[in-house]
Amino acid sequence: MGGDIKMINRTSQQFLLSTIAVLVSSQLWAADAPAQEETKKDALGLERITVTGVARGTRVMDSSVSVSSVSLAELEVSTPRSSAEAFRIIPGMKVESTGGEGNANIAVRGLPVASGGAKFLQIQEDGLPILQFGDIAFGNADIFLRLDSTVQTIESIRGGSASTAASNAPGGIINVISKTGSSDAGSVSTTFGLDYDTFRTDFEYGTSINDSLRFHVGGFVRTGEGPRQAGYDANKGGQVKANITKEFDSGYVRLYFKHLDDKSIGYLPMPMYSDGSSVPGFNAKSDAIQSAYFLSTLSLGADGERRRGDMRDGMNPEVNSVGLEASFDLGNDWQVENRFRFSDVSGNFMAPFPAEVANGADIAASIAGTGAKLIYANGPDAGNPMDGLAMRIHTFDVKMNDFGSIVNDLKLTKTFDDTSVTLGYYNATQNINMTWMWNSYLMEVKGDNAALLDVVAADGTAYSGAGLYGYGVPYWGNCCQRNYDTEYNIKAPYLAVASSFGDLSLDASVRYDSGDASGYYAGNVQSQVDMNLDGVISIPEQSVSSIDNANPQPVNYDWSYTSYSLGANYQFSSDLAAFGRLSHGGRANADRLLFGKVRADGSVAKEDAVDNVDQYELGVKYRYEDLSVFATAFYSETEEQNFEATSQRFFDRKYKAKGIEIESAYFIGDFDFRGNVTWTDAEIAKDALTPDVVGNTPRRQADFIYSLMGRYNFDQGSVGINLIGTTDSYAQDNNGLKFDGYNQVNAFATYNLTQALSVSLNVNNLFDATGITEAEEGSIPDNNIIRARTINGRTTSATLKYEF
Question: Keywords, A to Z (predicted)?
Fold first, then answer.
């Protein structure tokens, strides 16, 4: 097996890939299938008008864009436990959603995820980005997104057309579109866990006030421990969204509002054996490092003040946003559209990270010398010696002081017969103001409420107290007490032209992004501080990390880049079309340049400020009776500058990737089948800092990713199954440690008790599979224990829903 982490046998892998092949080639079945209703004949929505990533609404069959739409019904069958898990069924997306209800890593068609987040992808709500940068350290966009019953659909585009449709999004766009009260309807539903602790109520209602005025309002509230044992209610909070639309003879005006205040547990890598099995006392699929015996941490804040961090905050987004959308026909074939949003965003990120997993005696000796020992600091064995595996914990204690933004996107379109010209101007301001206040603790390796540990030297001297041995992170050179207050301004005029010549459609677009960054940042300084105010300077208090406010460093640089995209689509018949596209795009780098890439005067080298992406695509869209297929071949070359917080490493690389993305749907009688598979061949083409990895496969890049769904519909409800899977991939870029692919089976069933009342059963990871998405180690350590994140074990929930 070597360095492989075995999670699924090869027979199962072959069966699943065969299933994909059957799904894609299911035209063989379609020849004898009876005629279906029109919606079944267009299962992939090739006739719908797409609004994401295009200058103006375009029929998918006429578009040279790889676009997909996910309905609420499809989301239910995929049984997501977080917003990012809902994105797993989008073609071309490799979603690592093992961090909880946020902090997911999302890769698109082989574009890299070197340090987390979704760097080359933009996540939007109602056509505007949640954040301007998809990989802000400890501030991934999905942390500030919650899906609930207010969602109408999720629309996505992949590939180069996104380069000119949005700033900093050359890989793609995911747009979560809200209901607007276009139908007089509402619902209330309650979901509770059958084998894990969760309780949630969703509500939504929309209706017309009169002939020209309508509204929609909804949201959710919830509480519970979550899918892993945390020792406390780790998920608690809710959301309210509302919008009101006024229609006029020539257009409409819509006002949006969103309030989100939710706490969700953040899962970071956990100890497990390199073959994917659990270490004694810690179940990799159901346990968490969080514990009832580890709830608070004391540190110095941004201005040197004593403050306490609450481990129960987890990922705690606090969002208040107001948006305005308007669209009008000005006459004489002129159309104007404007989208505006003001967002007040702040919150916390609090989660324990295992910097080291080793024998407790070895960790004790590294801190207090030969003969040192560990004793339980709390819990049922408090005061007793501890002998076994221990963890050196770093608390990723981050205060997101201000992530607020102001965004406006204005576009004016003129139509000339079969040609439309759109001129637009995008303007945005993004604040990134945060404070890192990390500490170091010792903890036993144990699930279900692990205890903290103290280290005592051979002469009886205490080197820690209440489990804390360092105010800061001395194991990492006290790197990570940081504070920065930066502002990023973006301006982007853009032009798009689309023409039709019979069955041939051509489009071209160009976008010029320019921006500037201003502000300051400060690192750490060590000093002696009586943190607990007991009048005695303990060993940890002899060197306390705080923000070096006496030596702030300026941020003062600008950037610019030009993106362009050219596409063509030819419709051979009403059921067959082919398209091609070439694109050049860019992505400006933000906070990850700080503490290493920003010069003393605040400037940044041009090659560090912007990463460029070149992409080429060829695709085909095909329908035959009840079968629909959307296939795209792609090739990309990507530059990347990045910084990884957990390894304290910078990246300066170029990548190449090629592959094929296939999405298909088929109806037969009362059954419908949907699925997608993406094959990607990616490599590190150049590395200025670590040339040894050139030619290697990028970390966590699988050859195949897939999502398959089958559903049976009957008069009183439906039952379905969804398969999410990936083939094997490497843990790190050195390609030393490989973990095998996995297949996650999710199941869903609903039964209508009455016309308005239904009950549903939802099972995520039905067969309790292990599926590792990432690991800190690049090779197997001597003790055979790695730090990794795996998908959650089986969780089952029931939902009672009333629709009116």
Answer: Cell outer membrane, Ion transport, Iron, Iron transport, Membrane, Receptor, Signal, TonB box, Transmembrane, Transmembrane beta strand, Transport
